[in-house]
Write a sequence for this structure.
């Protein structure tokens, strides 16, 4: 319970940082997605139910502060969480290199999910151009920041003993 | 039997949770898609809870940035530069409005009375949050319904239009920028009076669409709001034409617009809390 509350607090804090400091970084195209990193962390270190609720909530909260099609981030973050669950028993999840690769890959997958939903919901021209413009740089920077952010999360006392859940 | 059911549930629990949560997320999209401007209680509450934190972080980082900029770097020069830039911006806006009026008086005498547009009271607001995703273009401002902000109100900056209020809570409001995919503004080319629709393309540029093919549009032409639709007052600067796409066929031509407002450097905006309907004779 204490651990899950701390994780909820982390979502809150990450969103505040994401909507203020991160969005004001000099290079607008390469903003790391802290909530995606958190979602992958939930997938690696939480139980399926608690993690799913937290991933859903982080997507939902991002939707509140994000664009006009509500629910896109909720869906994509939840999907990323379950994808992480799928892979966590098959690989050595504690390796920072693995974490960076996973976050990079999942960031790209999330981009595809969002593009697909946007394409289905509204007729927008050149939907693929944001893929190269936003997703690749964003995924790279998110993947690079990911292991450090996860290491930082583990420094929070209630989460410091968090071993991957089997 | 019960034990067997429990063991089946344990075996497939991840799949079951996945179906439940993903379906709920899809239902959320489906239920909100036609109610973009509706703000659920939970959304409203979270916006209210988070806005003071966002304000605090924004003010702290701004204060820190200003401290470094103002005291460590060139103190006087920076202040003078800011003052001069503000003056230039004011003069540009004034110039744009004067041009608009001059053209209107030359073309039609009776348009003169409409060119004295008074957009009504404006409310300054600080930007306290920017859309966390790369997909949408929204900002969060520190004024809400308590300050008289309502859905649909126009949001402008001294350089030009910014967007309109999408959702409100008592102390904050979400503004849909004109660069968002879902934004469109009725506009005219100031020189030739060619009409069109300015649509966002998700980047820091917009496109002028549905301008009749026969209309005269040239590079560098200024694009201003037409006043149609009632959301934005007439004559507000949108941007300048930077690229024209005119195919050999079709009824319309398109153009790319470089926006006047620098969205990456916006710190303060103004909400037009009242607009008068403008008639075009």
């Amino acid at each position: 319970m204490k651990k899950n509350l701390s994780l909820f607090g982390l979502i809150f804090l990450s969103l505040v940082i994401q909507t203020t400091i991160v969005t004001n970084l000099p290079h607008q195209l390469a903003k790391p997605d802290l909530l995606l990193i958190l979602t992958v962390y939930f997938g690696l270190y939480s139980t399926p139910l608690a993690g799913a609720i937290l991933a859903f909530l982080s997507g939902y909260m991002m939707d509140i502060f994000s664009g006009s099609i509500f629910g896109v981030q909720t869906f994509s973050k939840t999907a990323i969480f379950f994808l992480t669950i799928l892979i966590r028993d098959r690989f050595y999840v504690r390796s920072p290199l693995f974490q960076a690769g996973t976050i990079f890959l999942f960031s790209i997958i999330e981009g595809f999910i969002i593009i697909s939903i946007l394409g289905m919901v509204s007729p927008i021209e050149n939907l693929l151009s944001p893929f190269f413009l936003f997703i690749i740089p964003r995924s790279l920077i998110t993947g690079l920041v990911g292991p450090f952010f996860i290491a930082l999360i583990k420094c929070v006392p209630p989460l410091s003993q968090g071993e991957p859940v089997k | 039997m019960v034990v067997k059911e429990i063991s089946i549930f344990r075996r497939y629990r991840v799949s079951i949770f996945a179906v439940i949560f993903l379906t709920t997320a899809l239902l959320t999209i489906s239920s909100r898609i036609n109610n973009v401007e509706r703000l659920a209680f939970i959304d409203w509450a979270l916006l209210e809870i988070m806005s003071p934190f966002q304000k605090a972080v924004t003010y702290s980082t701004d204060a820190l940035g200003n401290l470094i900029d103002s005291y460590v770097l060139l103190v006087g020069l920076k202040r003078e530069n800011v003052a001069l830039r503000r003056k230039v911006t004011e003069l540009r806006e004034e110039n744009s409005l004067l041009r608009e009026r001059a053209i209107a008086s030359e073309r039609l005498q009776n348009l003169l009375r409409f060119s004295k547009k008074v957009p009504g009271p404006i409310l300054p607001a600080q930007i306290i949050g920017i859309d966390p995703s790369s997909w949408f273009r929204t900002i969060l401002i520190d004024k809400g319904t308590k300050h008289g902000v309502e859905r649909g109100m126009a949001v402008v900056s001294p350089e030009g239009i910014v967007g309109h209020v999408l959702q409100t809570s008592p102390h904050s409001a979400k503004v849909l920028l004109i660069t968002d995919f879902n934004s469109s503004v009725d506009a005219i080319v100031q020189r030739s009076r060619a009409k069109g629709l300015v649509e966002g393309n998700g980047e820091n540029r917009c496109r002028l669409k549905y301008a009749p093919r026969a209309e005269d549009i040239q590079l560098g032409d200024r694009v201003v709001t037409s006043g149609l639709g009632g959301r934005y007052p007439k004559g507000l600067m949108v941007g300048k034409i930077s690229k024209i796409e005119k195919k050999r066929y079709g009824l319309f031509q398109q153009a790319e617009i470089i926006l006047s407002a620098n969205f990456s450097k916006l710190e303060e905006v103004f909400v037009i809390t009242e607009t008068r309907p403008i008639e075009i004779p």
